[in-house]
Amino acid sequence: MDAIILQILNGLDKGSAYALIALGLTLIFGTLGVVNFAHGALFMIGAFCTVILNKLLSLEMVTKSATETTPWGTPVEVHTPYVVMWFGKVGETMIDYSVFWSILFAIPVMLIIGIAMERGLIKFFYKRPHADQILVTFGLAIVLQEIIKQIFGANPIPQPAPDAFVGSIDIGALIGLGANTVVYPIWRLVYFLFAAVIIAGVFAFLRFTTFGMVVRAGMADRETVGLLGINIDRRFTAMFGLAAVVTGLAGVMYTPILSPNYHMGMDFLVLCFVVVVVGGMGSLAGAVAAGFLLGVLQSFASMPEVKEFLFGFSIDQVIIYLVAVVILLTRPRGLMGRKGIMET
Fold first, then answer.
1. Helices in the chain by DSSP H: which ranges?
2. Can you tell me whether residue 97 is helix, strand or coil?
3. What is the pLDDT of residues 145-203, one digit of tens each?
4. Fewer CB within 10 Å of terminal CB in the chain, N or C?
């Protein structure tokens, strides 16, 4: 039982990232009909928003100590971050919680990048074949990846979680399985809860706000909504920006789990496109459900017992693609996709 619970938690952890990125992909495809292969780059940029803010908060003033000296008799250099000089203990807390502060920093940044991407490039490919959309957005992803590589280098840049969230929590003791049976990192649980809040917020926004209702109507029948005098293109541009924000925030909060690097967007992109296809192109609920489902399946596939059963072969890296093949053969529109989508 403890092994099963642990694998479910691992799966929900992975599935949270898959679901958030796939949700953004589906928002774009469902509203604009664009297959955006630059979406993984938005995840990467979100992660580097955390890097940038952490570096800004950690800018230091270097002074010479008046009392301490090195073994060679020179004054010891004292490094003091400016925010600590200005705000004291509050400044130290700001540095410690830089990941959370990065959320506020990333929201306007990702919104501007998303809208600029849609208005500056993608709007010219709305009526072009999906193959053209894939080529141009994939090229954009490579350009953004190389820009990040030139600015920040090729090596991963570790980002620590706040001190209060470092370490693990004994879940086994909390649910009555005994001490030290199910021990899980605190930050991974925080990431899952954060993903749940973002997903619930997006669905609530689309369901209960006038803006969201108009967008859903436009997704179902764009021409009719336009005939009512509503500028649906402007609203769809805003949805592209929202999709960029959702994906960027997924990258922000993932930095303590995976150190930001220039190729992390590509690493997640292909997996999340598979998630979208399995869930159903254009289905928001399908994207989220498939993200968590495939995350859990991948987690269980990594168990030593599964590897032993398969005579030493490991399938955790291919299980998602195997599921996708089965889904495409038996139900081409995906688990929750609308009839006629991706079936011809």
1. 2-32, 39-57, 82-87, 89-96, 98-120, 130-152, 171-174, 186-208, 210-220, 222-227, 232-254, 264-279, 284-301, 304-309, 319-330
2. coil
3. 999 999 998 899 999 899 999 888 888 777 777 777 778 889 999 999 999 999 999 99
4. C
